[in-house]
Design goal:
Elements: H1 26-39, H2 47-64, E1 71-76, H3 79-89, E2 95-99, H4 102-110, E3 120-123, E4 140-144, E5 146-147, E6 152-153, E7 165-169, E8 186-189, E9 201-206, H5 208-218, H6 230-237, H7 248-263, H8 266-287, E10 291-293, E11 305-310, H9 316-325, E12 341-345, H10 352-367
Parallel strand pairs: 2-3, 2-4, 4-7, 7-8
Antiparallel strand pairs: 1-9, 5-6, 8-9, 10-11, 11-12
Amino acid sequence: MPSLTIPTDLLPSDGRFGAGPSKVRPEQIEHLVSSARNILGTSHRQAPVRDLVGRVRSGLGELFQIPEGYEVVLGNGGSTAFWDAAAFALIERRSAHLSFGEFGSKFAKAAAAPHLESPHVVTAPGGSLAELDDIDGADVFAFPQNETSTGVMAPVRRFDDANVLTVVDATSAAGGVNFDADQADVYYFAPQKNFASDGGLWIALFSPEAIERVERIAASGRYIPEFLSLKNAIDNSRLNQTLNTPALSTLLLLENQIDWINGNGGLAWADARTRESSSVLYDWAAASDVATPFVTNPEHRSQVIATIDFDDAIDAAAISKTLRANGIVDTDPYRKLGRNQLRVATFVAIEPDDIRKLVSSIEYVIANSH
C-alpha cells in the first residue's frame, strides 16, 4: 500500500486505540505531576502513600458498589502474578476453567501446579465463548470476563454451589462493563485498560467466603511463597499498603481515573460509554461490504475490545500500517490469531467520537488504496 495522508478532518483527536496499555487522559498526567512531589520517592509505610492506597480502595468500593463484607485487596505484580498466587493460596484441590483466549488459557496453565489436581478446562475456538459443562469436583470456577485477545465477553455469574468460589479475570473489563459484584467471589484485574493506568499491581474484590478460603489454606501448612501469599495481600491491604513498595505512579493515575468515572455517573455511565463506542464499530462492520465482526454471536461481542475481520481483498495489516503513519496507533490484531483483522480498544477513556473518526479514517484508507 503506498503512503497515504488521511485528511485532518477525518483524524481522531487522540489516536491511541491499543488493547494493551491504554490511552491515558491528559488530566491523569497532570494529576501525576502535581501529586508526585509528595508521593514518589517516599516510604510506602507512611501516611501519604497509605492515604493514597486508602483513597483508591475506597473509590473502587464506591465504583463497584461492593456488597457487605467484601474487601478491596491489592498486591504487587499484575494478573500473571495473581494466577500464581491463586494456585498457591486460593485453589484448595482443583479448579475448573473456561478457556476462550489467552487470559483463560494462561490461568488454566498456572493452575496445573504439582500440589493440585489437574484442572478441568473447557475450551472454545477463538471468537466464541466457552460454557461450563461440569464442575467435575473443582472448588474454584475461573473465567475471564473479557478476552482481550479475541474480543469475546462473558457474563459475570456465580456458580451455584457454596463450596465453589467463582473467580473472574476482569483485567480488560473492570471499570468499563457493568456487573453485580455479588456474582463473583474474587473479581481481579490489572489497571492498564479501562483504568488507563500502568503496571505493577493487581487489584481484586474478595468476598467473605474467598477471604475465609485464603485464611484456611494459609493455616493448613501448605508451602506458599511470601510474594504469592494472598493472606499477606489481604492483611497488608487492610493497612492500606502492599507487601513490597507499590507502583506509585500506577496508583496516582488510577486514583484520577476512578474519580473521573465516579464523578460522571459511575459504572453505569462507563458501561453506556463503552457500549456506544463498540456499537459504532460493530454496526459499521455489519453494514460493510468488506468487513464483518469477528465474534459472530452479538451477545458475546465485547464492548471494550472490538475485533473486525476483513475480506481477503483487503489487507488489514496495510491499513494498520497506514493508520499508524497518520498517528492512529495500535489497531493491530492479536498476533497469535493470525487473522486479517483490526483490533480496536473502546475503553472508557476513549471518546466515542474518536471511534467515529477512526471508522472514517479506515474508510478513507480503503477507498484510496487501490
